[in-house]
Amino acid sequence: MKKILIVSGHTDIQRGSVVNRRILEVVKRELPEVTIDSLSEHYPDFRIDTAAEQKKVVDADVIVWQFPLFWFAKPSLLQRWEEEVFTHGFSHGTTGKALVHKKLLLSFTTGAPESAYDASFPVEAMAERFVRTAGLTGMDYVGFIYTGGVSYSLRADAEKRTEMAAASHAHAQRLVEKIHSLD
Asked: 93-114: per-residue pLDDT in tens?
């Protein structure tokens, strides 16, 4: 199997997540060989160890960004990680070839229901910025796994929590299948 790096971009995975944390737990159980890089656990102060993170992406064949979508964008911690790790001369520019031909897979969730992303604003439109990132860095964008309607605000409702658990498990299974298909 290829070396898989899952970069968890949730800003507070331990206390602030129900679904993204569960997705990572299921994936790790199903694919124990994957490396999960939990940014909120390593960098609660947003001070990214650039050299360490660059080594992780260099060592990986497939890079998965796992995150909740906040206001149509990735979380601030994942944005900061990208700014610090994907530097000119490393990931792009005339000498920046470290990410060429690595696969980039997105795995994201939204609090808004999937019906919120209709023909006037399809979920694919949100992925476009990541397609461009892959293109600039020479990575091969291989698509996304997406689940909507899993708002953190629903966690106090027992029935909704059960639904979110099922949705996160289904999301994780789709992610595992997609990772297997990349071999």
From this structure: 999 999 999 999 999 998 777 7
Side-chain-side CA neighbours of 3 within 13 Å: the count stands at 8
**How is residue 23 written in tokens?**
């997705």
Instruction: Tell me the C-alpha distance between 128 and 181, whole Å.
Output: 22
Global pTM reads: 0.92
DSSP secondary-structure letter at 146? E
Query: Which two tokens mark 42?
Result: 């390593």
How is residue 13 written in tokens?
């995975």
Helices of type H across the chain: 19-30, 39-42, 50-59, 76-85, 123-137, 158-181
Specify the long-range contacts of residues 15-19, CB closer than 8 Å, at least 24 apart: 16/152, 17/68, 17/152, 18/150, 18/152, 18/155, 18/161, 18/164, 18/165, 18/168, 19/68, 19/109, 19/147, 19/150, 19/152, 19/164, 19/167, 19/168, 19/171
Q: What phi, psi does 123 have (nearest 5°)? A: -60, -30
Rounded to whole angstroms, what are the CA distances from 38 to 9, 27, 66, 139?
7, 13, 9, 21
DSSP letter at 92 equals: B
**Cα distance between residue 95 and residue 20, in whole Å:** 35
